């Protein structure tokens, strides 16, 4: 169980520091946090002891072994199974762009890189780009240079910045942007490489990029038709 995952934690905003402290105590220092708001109906909120308050969404990269340890601690120490505390779940990571980014994201976790853990028969993948604030256009220009479509930007805040600066040898800022780009599986490597080359750790954007498998999509028909026309030409 030594695959890589993106661990997503959703909790009330006032519990953010408690969760990040817990993760750091267990050797998972690097996180990206963004805001959200609960939308469940009032009767559902009442049933589970929740409220519609502001939420925090935390993103970490973890190995399967790390998750096994964290899951036990989330239940025992954080009491995450009590209604109103939060939820944590895993999404498998297909690949991470560059050895330096991989080592940084898995620092302190025992991980030996093997074959990419893509799901079979997936047509699309989601690229997740984490970059310094203000460089979205640089990232998207790089992606579009190899025929990527549009992306979605989420403003976030990073932790573990001082450790990252020492490890990567570059200056980072806590204000981050996460860019989500859905791409065809056969385009993934070219687009990841373009982002790494044009907006990677050696640029002012200091981007890290990784991919997540997408099992199905809707709303991509126009892009598919345009690509089919290009193939005919």
Spell out the blueprint of helices and strands.
Layout: E1 4-12, H1 16-25, E2 31-37, H2 42-48, E3 54-63, H3 64-76, E4 86-92, E5 95-96, H4 99-105, E6 124-132, H5 136-144, E7 152-159, H6 161-168, E8 175-184, H7 188-199, E9 208-214, H8 221-232
Antiparallel strand pairs: 1-3, 1-4, 2-3, 2-7, 5-9, 6-8, 6-9, 7-8
Helix pairs in contact: 5-7
Rounded to an integer, what's the Rg over CA atoms?
18 Å
Number of domains: 2
Q: What is the name of the CATH class of the largest domain?
A: Alpha Beta
Query: How are the strands of the biggest sheet laid out side by side?
Result: 4-1-3-2-7-8-6-9-5
Q: Helical percent range?
A: 25-40%
Number of strands: 9
Continuous helix count: 8
Q: In CATH terms, what is the architecture of the largest domain?
A: 2-Layer Sandwich
Q: Give the helix/strand class.
A: alpha+beta
End-to-end separation in angstroms reads 46 Å
Mean pLDDT across all amino acids: 82
SSE series: EHEHEHEEHEHEHEHEH
* Spans where pLDDT lies below 50 across 5 or more residues: none
Biggest β-sheet description = 9 strands, antiparallel
- Within the CATH hierarchy, at the fold level, what is the topology of the largest domain? Alpha-Beta Plaits
Query: Approximately what portion of the residues adopt beta-strand conformation?
Result: 25-35%
Q: What does the overall shape look like?
A: globular
Characterization of this structure:
By secondary structure, this protein is an alpha+beta fold. It folds into two domains: 4-92, Alpha-Beta Plaits (2-Layer Sandwich); 96-222, Alpha-Beta Plaits. The chain has eight helices and nine strands. The chain has helices at 16-25, 42-48, 64-76, 99-105, 136-144, 161-168, 188-199, 221-232; strands spanning 4-12, 31-37, 54-63, 86-92, 95-96, 124-132, 152-159, 175-184, 208-214. The protein is globular.
